[in-house]
Amino acid sequence: MKDKRMAIFYAIMAAVFYAVNTPISKILLNDIPVKFMASFLYIGAGIGVGIMYLFHWKKEDKKERLVKSDLPYTIGMILLDIFAPIFMMAGIKLGTASNASLLGNFEILATSIIALCIFKEKVSKMLWVAMGFITFSSIILSFEGTGSFQFSYGSLFVILATICWGLENNCTRKISEKSTYQIVVLKGIFSGIGSFIIAEVTGEKLPPVRLIITAMILGYVAYGLSIFMYIKAQRTIGATKTSAYYSLAPFIGAFLSFVFVGEKLSISYLIALVIMLIGTAFVVLDTLMKNHSHVHSHVITHEHNGVKHEHIFEHSHFHKHFTDEIYHSHKHSNKEIETMLLQAHMN
Q1: What number of other Cβ atoms are within 10 A of residue 301's Cβ?
Q2: Rounded to an integer, what distance in angstroms lies between the CA atom of residue 175 and that of residue 164?
Q3: Per-residue pLDDT tens for 55-83?
Q4: How many beta carbons lie within 10 A of that of residue 129, not counting itself?
Q5: What is the model's pTM?
Q6: What is the SS3 assignment for 203?
Q7: Residues 339 and 315 sit within 8 Å (Cβ to Cβ)
């Protein structure tokens, strides 16, 4: 139970850290080209978590470190993380920060569908209900009016980014048992370098050093710490549930866009927030509740007309309970035992 609660905490904090990305990036994109912006965000994440790793690597179990068999998922993760932030920055540049934040919820559906269809991760009925609430809340906001969902090139780029990240989430899930530090450092440095090369080839102008440093600090918080905690959560509760908790990020991002960029919040935002919280509550329940089935076997011995009889009763039982324990004990009431003895006597 404690591990799952910590995983929920990590997932929510990942959403909070990532939420600062869109409003602040919107401001920085006035002076930093799109591809360079994506590059500095990821390089900042890689360097920041790399410094954290310097204080941790001696304590790390060697079994946690990435090996050759992890290479395909690692390469896939890096390649997808080269293009996803470029698409997202383009979407933020061409549209509004709040619109980009809200459209980011398509990442939840992308992650879940890819997890189900490609990686065969089980998606429970309760989780599908939660997805329904989360999606419905996004639709309410998406068709609001001013600053709402307008299917423009900006919206298209954001959706492309969410699809890339949906696939990337599942690639990362496959290696999430390994060193979180190594995953984030490799993802940050190599994805950042890839975006940097694309920026140079396409002729983007390098921004001033002070803006580069600002973007890298933002990258450390919004990408480095966010990804670090996201992977920590994935390790315990899987890609689908983690992405569902992560759905809080667009709402936080929209609020921060109101604070930093001056974009308006509306009554639709508050209504959708309530619906989103209902969906999140379903995710919490699905995360903490454990499906459990077992067979009870009861042996009752008694003497009838001088002859000993032995009766074995078996019945299966399925239920959900809030526990991480596989085995648990319980007692039958006296009435249940009396009924069993009566049945045994009649037989």
Answers
A1: 9
A2: 17
A3: 888 788 888 888 889 999 999 999 999 99
A4: 16
A5: 0.69
A6: coil
A7: no
